[in-house]
Design a protein that fits this description.
Layout: H1 5-11, E1 18-21, E2 25-29, E3 37-43, H2 58-74, E4 82-85, E5 101-105
Antiparallel strand pairs: 1-2, 2-3, 3-5, 4-5
The chain binds guanosine-5'-monophosphate (5GP) and zinc ion (ZN).
Length: about 110
């Protein structure tokens, strides 16, 4: 069994509320949602953080943004707006070291972020 929590979601050894998947990515609802819609989009491949992206990962990062737009429409947050966030490292509050994109919507977000 994988030691990485999100690899566990990919491999289905850890339960996740998966709302979308394809051969490159998996999207599932955050267990502690910070907004009415809070979905995590992750590459199937284990990449620890944004800093660990390799040239061969260029395709999947672009694909994740397309999936984010598709899910934003499907989840009903495209019209009013939404946010896509990647936390990288300690100061940003990254807690799970498998690259993930937060898709957040359904409420107003302040700027700058806290
Ligand atoms: P980070 O703080 O690393 O950017 O985001 C990690 C996110 O993963 C957090 O929003 C947290 O709520 C979520 N999370 C942590 N453990 C689990 C889990 O077991 N299942 C799901 N669905 N989300 C999780
Ligand atoms: Zn992983």
């Amino acid at each position: 069994m994988s030691e990485c929590l999100f690899c566990g979601v990919v491999e289905r050894t850890i339960k996740g509320d998966v709302i979308y998947e394809d051969d490159a990515v998996v999207a599932f609802r955050d267990i502690r949602p910070q907004a009415p819609v809070h979905v995590l989009i992750i590459p199937r491949k284990h990449i620890a953080s944004l800093l660990d992206l390799e040239t061969e990962d260029k395709g999947v990062t672009g694909h994740i943004f397309q999936v984010a737009a598709k899910l934003a429409r499907e989840q009903g947050i495209a019209k009013n707006g939404f946010r896509v966030v990647v936390n990288c490292g300690t100061d940003a509050g990254q807690t799970v070291f498998h690259l993930h994109y937060h898709l957040l919507g359904g409420r107003h977000f302040g700027w700058p972020p806290g």
